[in-house]
Amino acid sequence: MLLYLAALLAGIFSAHLAQRLCFPYFWRDARYLMKLIRYGARLELYKQTAKVVTVVDRFVERARRTPHKPFVIYDGVTHTYGEIDARSNRVARVFERAVRKGDTVALLMSNEADFISVWFGFSKLGCAVAFLNTNIRSRSLLHCFNCCGARLLVVGKDVLDTLEDILPSLQEDNITVWCMKPQSSLPGVHSLPEKIQQVSDEPLSSDLRSVSCLKTPTLYIFTSGTTGLPKAAVITHLQSLKAAGGFWAYGGTEDDIIYTPLPLYHSAASLVGIGGTIELGATCVLKKKFSASQFWSDCRKHNVTIIQYIGELCRYLCNQPVVENEKDHRVRMGVGNGLRQDVWREFHRRFGEIPMCEIYGSTEGNLCFMNHIGKIGAVGRSNFFYKMLFKYVLVKYDMIRDEPVRDQKGFCIHVATGETGLLLSKICSQSPFFGYAGSKQLTEKKILRDVFVKGDAYFNTGDLMAEDEDNFICFKDRVGDTFRWKGENVATTEVTETLGQVDFIQEVNVYGVHVPGQEGRAGMAAVVLRPECTFDGRKLFDLVMRELPSYARPLFIRLQESMEMTSTFKQQKFSLVQSGFNPSDVSDPLYVLDSTERCFIPLSSCVYDTILTGVRKL
């Protein structure tokens, strides 16, 4: 008997040892998958009962159960669940006769508590809300209304002046404009705060906001893409509910205090940040704008336990001067994306071993990765079971031709383990792709068809990734006509069209170049001048400052006699990206944007050195 018991114990020990050696992440993978299955089961239940409990429904329930619990802390003022619920009811009361269930309204506001009140107020009326990027201007802003079909706009008091040029066009299109100022100096703009005080905060019927289908649109979030102008990604209740589970999947609880310095018009702050706070029943400290110098003092002041980040934000923090108390905080977790390995390690060295929980996924995409193991440099982790649930592939990509490589039969080719490839996600019932509002062509451009068999369809992420032998997935680069700078996607065709407005430019090719020590890629434009014209750096400076948001302005200009083209008559970007902006390597004249001189000035070797050393800020 003792012999059998000893053999059993030896077998258990051997199995445990084999698991630790061969499958070191087995139990953590299993716990993570169980969480996914539990959360997914709730969504499946909605399908069976035809009664979707939306993010706003969850908020209303939280407000009923814990009305006095702090929900949002903004600018030193605490707003409870009950207070935001009541104020959003007032917003709904103001507009209950002006809009109908199924209408779309637009919101152009910076981070503040009323952003959420207005958002939820319209949601309680059954409206879809379009979040407009506060950086966009003029033509791009008008384009956004054409995309989503909004006929009503609410504007924050700090961005109202940006509408002055296009207000007549909005009014000609019968778009009603409301602002969050007690009084407006612009003609025809209505004041919302006065109306809010005049109505009841009694809740409206829940039937107004009820939906029976997870695929009903609830938001439109604008994202830059290959078309140049902003695209309205359709955000359904399914997507918003999935995003709201991010903090919970990483172990967040109702006792957490979440710090969100990211803009609410992006999905990270609104869907993951606010939605995730509601899912937990936690508290969110909302910052109007990220400040590297105030970040840790804010965390200490409010006893923050979870921070939201993007890679660029962490790099700014690491570049701050060292202070004695920078590890004196209660932050136990960071949730975000785009954290570079070197910044990740420096962040840990400076501010403590905070688990940084990467989430990979685009606003409009149908695939999400989560690095639940916390391996430095990985955007996510996969395994056999995850691949059964979510069908994604990495395929060979031709950077010069700017397209996937196909075999003799016309099908894509899988990359080997560890090899970089284009990430594609299969479009199916478990992973639907809802596309963009306003144009089927925009949606179709993101779909790759006949990938492995005739008739199949995959969402093209536009991201080059690699998956190693341990199933960790690492981001390598972006392809196509977008690149990231300052945490934003830059659409090269929009920049190209803007630069083409000056009279001395004949042809433009916009791309992103790597700057040592900087996250993402800085904008650069290769231009061909019109015959008998000369380059005017001051005129070009004035144009880009007036027409483009700060992150989309090209920092470098390269003058060329002719534009290189691919065999398929597309502008050649690959060789330009590779050659960069070093005047020692590039024989063409180079210029750099100089805010002090208010001009594009010649990029000499001396100026180049000041960029590398950080003396000249980009």
Automatic annotation (TrEMBL):
GO molecular function term, any single one: nucleotide binding
Domain of life: Eukaryota
Main location: membrane
Membrane-topology annotation of the record: Multi-pass membrane protein
Domain AMP-dependent synthetase/ligase: residue ranges: 60-380
Assigned EC number: 6.2.1.3
Protein name as it appears in the record: long-chain-fatty-acid--CoA ligase
